[in-house]
Amino acid sequence: MPENTEAGLSALPVAVIGSGPVGLAAAAHLLERGLTPLIFEAGNAPAAAVSAWGHVRLFSPWQYDVDAAARRLLTAAGWREPGADVLPTGAELVEHYLRPLASLPAVRDALHTSCEVLAVSREGLDKTRTGGRDKVPFLVRVRDADGTITDHRVRAVIDASGTWSTPNPLGQSGLPARGEADAYAAGLITPPLPDVTGRDRARFAGKHVLVVGAGHSAANTLLALGELAEQEPGTRISWAIRRASAAGVYGGGDLDGLPARGALGSRLRGLVEGGCIELHTSFTITGFKSAESLSVAGATPSGETQLAVDLLVPATGFRPNLDMLREIRLDLDPAVEAPRALGPLIDPEFHSCGTVEPHGARLLSHPEKDFYVTGMKSYGRAPTFLMATGYEQVRSIAAALAGDQKAADDVQLVLPETGVCSTDLGGSCDTDAAASGQGGTACCAPEPAAAPAGGAAEASCCGIPEPAASVPAAGQGESSCCSTPEPAFLGIPTGLAHGRSAEREN
């Protein structure tokens, strides 16, 4: 094992796993602190996972989507920031922010695409060895596009790899259903959030599609399929949820009494009540049989049932991939697989949105010194996360790695309204439109634009279709049929009983 000194260790780079919004923000903060990032991206381009859902509109406007350190680096290079109140799509986030950030020379030189991290360990030590552990470099094992495996020595590791590549299984008890792997292999189960009305249109047109899940991802896909069914005869939509009611998705339950202007849920309810979507409640998938089509077995209160569909879209959330961290000493919450101190603050059993106070390096630390999981992956299996939260995480971590513990502990975060999981569900006049029957209640006649990630609906407040790619620039809201849209933020005020435990009490 090579000789290691404190000076030698501090001269090594800091590994950043993932080049999404939080990973690139981590690199920006490290650079500002005089530290050297070494960024590994499994995809063939920066922010590859964001590009995969590029057709989806974010629920947060630009003012919450740009990291402060990244903004400073970009501004110094002549970058022009998008309008603060505009809601970008994933593709726009990449084009106008993440790709320019990754192209800055200091970031570009540190970024290695098509490099999959296989494992993280300590050089010369497995997990059981304790003596001198903190003084030994980390070893990051990486496989590149040619299959070549290389071990990199680094002083610290920031895992911002996200959860996009590991969707939750469709079966009960957190396990894959029988035949699930075969259905994926046969292409009968699609990736999450497909571009139903765009690049994946031909795959879905005229098909019977089953969407499984009861969150915003499911609602996005169902609304897009409703638009497709309006344009492509023979397109049939089914929707299966484990709950006894879809009221929570429509905006009832936890959201009762909160402002919802033209909510995504009202449009979705219209499709269901109009017969465009066939809803199956209390449906637990027990197995799949794959042939030219997919047979989905489900347990219901009335007994076992079978659904025959052409395609299934999973919208059941994600979980972290911890396989590459098996040699790292982690301290995880036993329920959600987030850092132990963070877990109770975001547990979906008690929180339906991320009602979490600002947090940084101290709360995100593990027994393995100078190892951190950040971003969406830091939330483990909890379903809600805001990029702004991740930006504050990595700002604090970079300060801690630079030895500035005071700055690391001074965690602050300004979020919209209640400071929780917020979403723009439409413009300021959507309430009137919904009340006057313009919410798309006719079968297969929804507002045609797909809803944004996290539940934001993108459509004209007068019921006139707007192109999915059309985003008004800041200050152009007066050209719409009503006054400049005001984002309608939905959230759960801190201190209220909510989440799955509250559902069972009602």
Structure description:
The protein is an alpha/beta fold and 506 residues long. The chain is 25% helix and 15% strand. The chain is built from 17 helices and 15 strands. The strands form four sheets. It has a five-stranded parallel sheet with strand order 3-2-1-7-15, covered by helices on one side. It has a four-stranded parallel sheet with strand order 10-9-8-14.
From the N-terminal CA to the C-terminal CA, the straight-line distance is: 60 Å
Number of strands: 15
Broad shape? globular
Mean pLDDT: 82
What is the helix content?
25-40%
Put simply, the count of helices is 17
Q: Which range does the strand content fall in?
A: 5-15%
Unreliable stretches covering 5 or more consecutive residues: 252-262, 417-506
For this structure, the quaternary state is single chain
Task: Specify the biggest β-sheet.
Answer: 5 strands, parallel
Structural class: alpha/beta
Task: Give me the Rg, rounded.
Answer: 23 Å
Q: What is the topology, as strand order, of the major beta sheet?
A: 3-2-1-7-15
Q: Helices, strands, pairings?
A:
Blueprint lengths: L5 H5 L3 E4 L3 H12 L4 E4 L7 H5 L15 H9 L13 H14 L1 H4 L2 E2 L3 E7 L15 E6 L5 E6 L1 E4 L20 H6 L15 H4 L3 E5 L3 H16 L4 E5 L6 H4 L13 H10 L3 E4 L3 E7 L3 E7 L2 E7 L1 E4 L28 H4 L14 H4 L6 E3 L13 H15 L3 H5 L20 H6 L64 H6 L1
Parallel strand pairs: 1-2, 1-7, 2-3, 7-15, 8-9, 8-14, 9-10
Antiparallel strand pairs: 4-5, 5-6, 11-12, 12-13
Helix pairs in contact: 2-4, 2-14, 9-11
